[in-house]
Amino acid sequence: MSDNKVQIFDTTLRDGEQVPGCKLDTEQKLVIARRLDDLGVDVIEAGFPISSPGDFKSVEEISKIVKNATVCGLTRSVKKDIEVAAEALKYAIRPRIHTGIGTSDSHIKFKFKSTREDILERAVQAVAYAKTFVEDVEFYAEDAGRTDNEYLARVCEAVIKAGATVLNIPDTTGYCLPEEYGAKMKYLKENVKGIDKAILSCHCHNDLGLATANSIAGVINGARQIECTINGIGERAGNTSLEEVVMILRQHPHLNLDTNINSKLLFDTSKMVSDKMGMPVQPNKAIVGSNAFAHSSGIHQDGVIKNRETYEIIDPAEVGVTESAIVLTARSGRAALAYRAKNVGYELTKKQLDVVYEEFLNFADRKKEIVDEDIHEIMKITKIEAGAVA
Ligand code: KIV
Ligand code: ZN
Q: Between 20 and 30 A from 284 (CA), which of 63, 83, 122, 340?
């Protein structure tokens, strides 16, 4: 792997599917897995095989059909979990077991009623056991965001010795600030012996709306894998959004970091996941929301009509959106009205536009948005015929 490649680990079918109401059956998961493989993700986390017979079956079926990506199954640091995951992954061309344990003092004390030393030992045993089934073993230090860095480094060092190929540093509760999360990665890079044998991975939750920023801070500071979901769906406020991190890296080439993602499939994939999960995408969602390339204020519309780059940093075609939308509202100006009128067949002179604009404002004050039918109606009232020549 080249050093400027960031691996995309998609967990839509595991962390994403944990969302209440987003449950998918095996058939639906297979359709999404195929699409993720086409999209170019490096790893598909297909499920948590021991959690239910349905999840086991999904991981097994996905393992059979995925051609390019690594297929991964989640486990706790429990022997039975690891055995079941290995069984579910047996058809995968590139199988990965993702095992781990909580490492923050809060998890150690309240969840496990244990000690740091015991948790470290359990982590090592889990990785060593997973390694007897597959070569590729990812270790997660759950709640790493709130784990003391010195202890986290000791755990990382020990699991690398046990054979971990990837170290997942989850900000499970979405607590960290980008500076803090980036500094954590830097600390691990600088203080864990053998760190060059493993890939550091960002796994961020969005409780404070910082999942994407934290993941980017992570890769700037040495991580080379981002765990994310389509549309940012996931536990509580969600996970890092795949489309956001991919486009941030692409829009900032000076970072010299990129992914293998075919960005032209992003919009369609977002829609597919939203439809299958019955989870609508908020209109103002970055990259894939319905308003992400829609312009409604007069000043912006005038700029975009003159040159798209005045108010758009991404060419919509790059993410599979056909074109920018000029939305007509009471805040729109003459340029936008003339542009939309031309699109439906009316080429207006300046004088005609003045008349039509007055009527347009009357309509727009009554309606939230003026659609093509309204334009025809306005033209009828102002006695302008389609094809009128400027
Ligand atoms: O958020 C988290 O800590 C997780 C782990 C199970 C990887 O999803
Ligand atoms: Zn998570």
A: 340
| Interval 115-127: pLDDT, tens | 999 999 999 999 9
Q: Which residues of 7-30 are buried (b: 16+ CB within 10 A; e: fewer)?
A: bbbbbbbbbbbbbeebebebebbb
What's the residue count for the chain? 390
Pick from 97, 94, 60: which is nearest to 80 by CA? Answer: 97
CA of 166 to the centre of ligand 1 (A): 14
Q: Counting ligands in written order, which one lies closest to the CA of residue 173?
A: 1
Q: How many folded domains does the chain comprise?
A: 2
Per the structure, the complete domain to which residue 229 belongs is given by: 7-277
Which atom of ligand 1 lies closest to the CA of 205?
Answer: 1
Kindly report the CATH number assigned to the domain that includes residue 216. 3.20.20.70
Provide mean pLDDT across the span 258-280. Answer: 98
Ligand 1 pocket list (CB less than 6 A): 15, 140, 142, 168, 170, 172, 203, 205
